[in-house]
Automatic annotation (TrEMBL):
<keyword id="KW-0813">Transport</keyword>
<feature type="transmembrane region" description="Helical">
    <location>
        <begin position="56"/>
        <end position="74"/>
    </location>
</feature>
<dbReference type="InterPro" id="IPR017588">
    <property type="entry name" value="UacT-like"/>
</dbReference>
<keyword id="KW-1133">Transmembrane helix</keyword>
<feature type="transmembrane region" description="Helical">
    <location>
        <begin position="349"/>
        <end position="372"/>
    </location>
</feature>
<comment type="similarity">
    <text>Belongs to the nucleobase:cation symporter-2 (NCS2) (TC 2.A.40) family.</text>
</comment>
<dbReference type="GO" id="GO:0005886">
    <property type="term" value="C:plasma membrane"/>
</dbReference>
<dbReference type="Pfam" id="PF00860">
    <property type="entry name" value="Xan_ur_permease"/>
</dbReference>
<feature type="transmembrane region" description="Helical">
    <location>
        <begin position="438"/>
        <end position="458"/>
    </location>
</feature>
<feature type="transmembrane region" description="Helical">
    <location>
        <begin position="136"/>
        <end position="154"/>
    </location>
</feature>
<feature type="transmembrane region" description="Helical">
    <location>
        <begin position="410"/>
        <end position="432"/>
    </location>
</feature>
<keyword id="KW-0472">Membrane</keyword>
<protein>
    <submittedName>
        <fullName>Xanthine/uracil permease</fullName>
    </submittedName>
</protein>
<feature type="transmembrane region" description="Helical">
    <location>
        <begin position="161"/>
        <end position="179"/>
    </location>
</feature>
<feature type="transmembrane region" description="Helical">
    <location>
        <begin position="199"/>
        <end position="218"/>
    </location>
</feature>
<dbReference type="InterPro" id="IPR006042">
    <property type="entry name" value="Xan_ur_permease"/>
</dbReference>
<feature type="region of interest" description="Disordered">
    <location>
        <begin position="1"/>
        <end position="37"/>
    </location>
</feature>
Length: 473
């Protein structure tokens, strides 16, 4: 899939157009050799460190939130949480290196970063709570390997995901994740004495306010750090009010390597795999949008072959997250596109430096211990803000949809209704057979299926729309 010239990004001021072909950089217009290509420039060590650290800070809040949400929902120990944080940092760093530098046909070779996916949280939790962690990671492993296998077909899949489908899906993901953040604030056991403590809710409210003020008051370059700054502010307030417990810091070795198969050998269940496979399709569509967005910013064409290389990188990291360093599903992040636009630093070696920094942090368990020490209401408030933002992204995509067409109204209404049934009514499918209950309990997965099938039913004879990946970019 190639970005049409009409929607490609502008050239970097002061440079010639720098299009990359399968055989290397295109020749310059003046015949004087290859045109300058900012993506392949190697800045000074100082710039690599400064800009690489900036990318790390932007993605850090998202990177540490996923492990905390999963560990909290699955009632894992603090040691398990420390492991999840370090394993996540390691795979985020490795994936970022892979996407930035590339190996053979793996990695898009653009300034992009990889992180744990919010989209995969809800179905992973359903599998983990119902069938155990080993089954959950078996599904992640298979889905990662399948992603590598189908990478060449991704360009042809885009036709099934117009804005009405992908917008509904992302809206559902945000809505279904918000309760996970809320439970981090008030607790998971309504019978516990501290459940819904006004102090905890107050701390969360102050943290959320700090995040919102950051978005409102910070300069544009720093707004992407608003969530991280809000979490720091909330933690400082927690320390001043006695909410911060630092007793767990320093309990492990100063330097160590994340365990292999920390939660045991993966087990494989067809329904669990199917549930995550549906979610992975959405992640692949999301990835296509991110790659096209970066291609537009740095003025490089994204062919089907290059998109397949990006998909393979995500698949490799996801497979490692299931079968080696057990952690999460992974996808190329969008947050860092804003940094590229603002700083105009397009070098892929900058994000490669970010990858090295992330991998370096993984060898220091104290990083995970510090994350584990952050009060749950602080992390919950940050999570609710981020999950709410995901829902808004879905709404923005739905803004491209023609709702004067009744078919689109039915698609969104049916998908939302079916997906929210198990969320709003606990035990809605409790009388169904175990296999059916496990699959139907994933509201996001069922909602995606309904949206895709209804879109095919209503729009099968219509002209092909602009792929959602191009619209996202």
């Amino acid at each position: 899939m190639t970005i049409p010239s009409a929607i490609r990004g502008r050239r970097r001021p002061g440079t010639a157009e720098h299009t990359v072909t399968p055989d290397g950089p295109a020749p310059s217009n003046d015949g004087g050799g290859p045109a300058p290509n900012p993506v392949d420039e190697v800045p000074s060590a100082w710039k690599l460190l400064v800009y690489g650290l900036q990318h790390l800070l932007v993605m850090y809040a998202s990177t540490i939130t996923v492990p905390v949400v999963v560990a909290s929902a699955l009632d894992l120990s603090q040691q398990d949480l420390v492991y999840l944080v370090t394993a996540d940092l390691l795979l985020c760093g490795f994936g970022t290196l892979l996407q930035s530098l590339g190996i053979w046909r793996v990695g898009v070779r653009l300034p992009m970063v990889i992180g744990a996916s919010y989209t995969g949280i809800a179905p992973m939790l359903i599998i983990g709570q119902g069938s155990g962690l080993q089954t959950m990671y078996g599904a992640v492993l298979v889905v990662g390997l399948a992603t590598i296998a189908v990478a060449p077909l991704v360009g042809k899949m885009m036709r099934f995901f117009p804005p009405v489908v992908i917008g509904t899906t992302i809206l559902l993901i945000g809505i279904q994740l918000i309760p996970a953040g809320a439970k981090m604030i008030v607790g998971t056991d309504p019978d516990a004495s501290g459940f819904g403590s006004p102090a905890a809710i107050g701390l969360a409210a102050v943290t959320a306010l700090a995040v919102l003020l950051g978005y409102r008051l910070l300069p544009r370059l720093l707004r992407s750090l608003a969530v991280l700054i809000g979490m720091i502010a909330g933690t400082v307030i927690a320390a001043a009010t006695g909410f911060l417990d630092l007793s767990g810091i320093g309990d492990t070795q100063a330097i160590s390597f994340p365990d292999l198969l920390h939660f045991g050998a993966p087990r494989f269940d067809v329904l669990a795999i199917c549930s995550l496979a549906i979610i992975q399709i959405v992640l692949v569509v999301e990835l296509a949008g991110q790659v096209n967005a970066v291609g537009e910013v740095v003025d490089q064409e994204i062919s089907d072959r290059r998109l397949a290389a990006a998909v393979r990188a995500d698949g490799v990291v996801t497979a490692l997250g299931g079968g080696v360093f057990q952690s999460f599903m992974y996808v190329t992040f969008a947050q860092n596109v804003g940094i590229l636009t603002i700083t105009r630093m397009f070098s892929r070696y900058v994000t490669a430096t970010t990858g090295v920094l992330l991998m370096s942090l993984a060898f220091f368990p104290v990083v995970g211990e510090i994350v584990a020490a952050i009060p749950r209401p602080v992390l919950g408030a940050a999570a609710v803000v981020m999950f709410g933002t995901i829902a808004v992204v879905g709404i923005r995509i739905l803004g491209q949809v023609d709702f004067a067409d009744t078919a689109n109204v039915i698609i969104v209404a049916a998908a939302l209704g079916v997906a929210l049934l198990p969320t709003t009514v606990s035990g809605f499918y409790s009388q169904f057979p175990d296999a059916a209950r496990q699959l139907l309990s994933s509201g996001v997965a069922t909602g995606i299926c309904v949206a895709v099938l209804l879109n095919i039913l209503f729009h099968a004879r219509r002209p092909l729309e602009v792929p959602v990946s191009d619209r996202l970019s």
